[in-house]
Amino acid sequence: MADHDRTASLMTPATLAAQGAPMAAASPAAWLNQMAADAGYAHVRRLGELREEMQKQAGLRDFSPVTAELTRLAEALPQLDFGLLQARGWWARTTGKSRTAGAEFAAQFERIDEVTQGLAKQAQALQKKPQAQGTAGELSLVELEVEYRAIEKILNQGARWLQDMRTQLKARKAAPHDEQADKEIRDDAARCEILVDRLKALRAVASAAQAAYQQAQAASARRLALLQLLQQALASDVTAWRSRLAALAGSAGDKGSPALSLEAPMESHRELQLCVKQAIADCGQLQAQEKALAESLGVLGVQTEAAKC
User: Fold this and answer.
1) I need a labelling partner for 11 at 20 to 30 A (CA). Which of 104, 126, 213, 285 fits?
2) 61: CB partners within 8 A, 6+ apart
């Protein structure tokens, strides 16, 4: 990237228009017309580049593996049958049914625990990706805001210039003037219309860029919330669940063990189910937000291409 591209956001709109626009025409009038038509060119070009960068970054984000593991766990958890441990009376111990039921319960626990381990692997892999992608994404988002706000400044300056120019044109038309002055008035009026069209295009770009910025912010917040849920709340619930259920499963088949206390393990089981349900809902919301971001980037692409013409 050229030096003037890297420092584009630090320049004044007038300087940017002069540097970013195509070569000026030979005559002063034509040059002014070209400037009016190409105001904000460098910002528009950079916004188009940022859109492409953000689309590439979005393509690297994939939450489907962790969503699939969450769904597997949500389907597996109800298969743990605590009813197997509730019939542990004298007759059950005498006939050996207590031990058989305990073995079945332990097998169910082990199968579900394997699913939790698969989820943990996917969550860890997901945690590593944002560390590599986060800096680039944050920089793109910051620069996106800088560029569209620079265009907003051009819009404000252009609106003031138009107002002043139209006031002057009105006064010049009212004053006595010759044919040459009349031609200059018509040329300036035409120049105003050129700038009006350019400002409309810039306004569409700025609006699309702002919408994309807001969608990107919302998507980033949802990604962070999901990662925190997976790394903190869900990981904590899985640890508590495994600790209590492993102890319960270990003693379930013991013929001489006293009556088992199921209250705490069942509570851990319910809490894990609720947390998994919340995580799946968060994945769905994130997917919807990523879709909204993709759509807003698409709109930005249309507007930046139109403003380059």
Assistant:
1) 213
2) 129, 133, 223, 290
